[in-house]
Each structure stands twice: as C-alpha cells, then as structure tokens.
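[READ THE FOLD]
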Amino acid sequence: MGQSASLHASCIPIVTGCFPDKAGLITTTVQTFMGLGSSLGPFVGALTYHFGGFQAPFYATGSAQLLVVAVMAALMLQRKAADDTESQNTDKKKYYKFIMNRSILVLSSATLLMCAYPGFKSVTYSVFLLNQLGVTQELSSITFGGMTAAYVVAAPLFGYLVKKGFCGLGFTFAVTGGALCIIITGLTEYIHGFMNYAYVLPVFLMTDVCYSALFGSVFLIFEKISDETEVDKNRSRQMVSSWFFTLRSCGRIVGSLLAGGVLAENVGFTVSCLVYGGCWLVSACSSAVALTNLGFYKRTYYSSSDTQEQNEH
C-alpha cells in the first residue's frame, strides 16, 4: 500500500510534472532504479542479517526510508496546494473520459497483461527451474538476478528510443516479443534438445528485455491520447500516471494469483505459459490496430517544435 501510494500515485506524477519534456525518459529511469533496488535488496538484507541478526534488515531499511521521507517532505513544501474544487470536478470528468476512450481500453488490457508478468514469473519460472530443469536453488536465484539485470540494462535504451519518437514500435515490441518468449518457454519440453538450461536462459533474459520496453512507451502513448481531453499538462501527466500504475498494481495481483497460481496449480507449466502468452498475442494484435489508427507507427508523436526543444535540452 505504501509503495502504491508514494511511488505509483504520487512520485511519478510529481517528477514528470517537474520535467515535462522528458516524461518517457523519467518513467524508464524510475523503473530502472526500481530494478536496481530489487537486485540489491536481497544482498543488503543478507548482509545486514549476517552481521546484525533478524532485526537488522528492518532497522536499516526502515531508517533509510524515514530519511527519504524527510527529504521528500521538504521538497513537497515547495509545491503549491491543489486547485479549487470546481477545477478538480472538471478534471474528474476528463479522467473518466480518458479511461473510457476505446483506444485506452484496448491498450490498457495489453498493459494489464504485461504487468502481470513479474507475478507470473516468480511463481511459475522458479518451479520450472527447480523441478523440471533440475537446477540448484543458488543457480535459480542467480537466474532471476540475471533477468532483473537484463531489465535494468535494457530500460534506459528503450527510454532513449521512446524519446526519439518510437513509442508505438516500443510498445508493440514489448507485447509481441514477450508473448513469443513465454510461448517458447511453455513449449520447451516439446522442442527437441531445448530442455536445457543453456537454451532456456536466453529466452528468459529476452522476456525481461521485452518487458522493459513497456513503461516509457505506454506512458507516452497514454499521454498523447489524454491530450484529446484538453486537460492541463501537469494534470494530464498525473492522470496518466495514476491510471498506468493502477494497471501495474492490478497486473501484479493477476499475475501472482491467477496466471501464476491458479493456472500453474491446475493445468501445469506448459498450459499456463501457452494460455498467458496467447493472451499476450491477442492483445498485441488488438493494440497494433489501435496504434495504427492513432498514427503512432508514423513516428509523429513529436512536432517539429518539440524536437527543437529537445535538441536544445
């Protein structure tokens, strides 16, 4: 709840509001540091536990977060209060209009499915590595660390490409590439000679690379569509951020509970991957149609004035 309230609902809109010309880059940068935190967290926890016992990791991380809260509170005092009630009510109507946009609904379904990937991965892939490939627990942990590292390395690259106007292609690559990787993983035991860790690992890594392409691209796509509501730019970014991270939080629940838990428990690893990857492919086709109709494949997101302003920065 704290992460959703602070990072998802507040931090991203504030930061993108401070740097409006670099919304996609800021989003992918935040996601990159989230990946770094996920990678360093187990190491820091193990280190503090080794030297200080059970309470040490909680004391260390809790104190660090309190320090961050103090710094953020000082920064927040510099920002003005919200606008009047009438303006807020108007923005609520525009927010509902934004959500009910047909293109937003199509792209949101694809985003929701993709955001379910971390939960799906943590439940199904770990069991697959340990039980079917027979790898050790240590190697399984290293594998997940490598997947996170692939995400961390690829996220800034896709952020740069999105900044150059390739948000439509980035989103399509994320959905289509991720779907194909998951389907290939599900078919591992049926592909001759592929039931081997050396062959499976690159597919795992590529899945996280595709997943890293999601955040910056979909954020800018949503923002472009939200411009049609004629809402204030800063409020537009807040609206897009809140909706995107709502999808992200719901996706994690869906991934852990339904895709990773219920499916894997009842139908097995192969069918789970095929069903989940198949849903990704369907959403990839529908989102491609929506992006084509919106003109995102023509690289027309930025106007000439926007490009000139970016070059100056």
Observations:
- The longest helix spans residues 233-294.
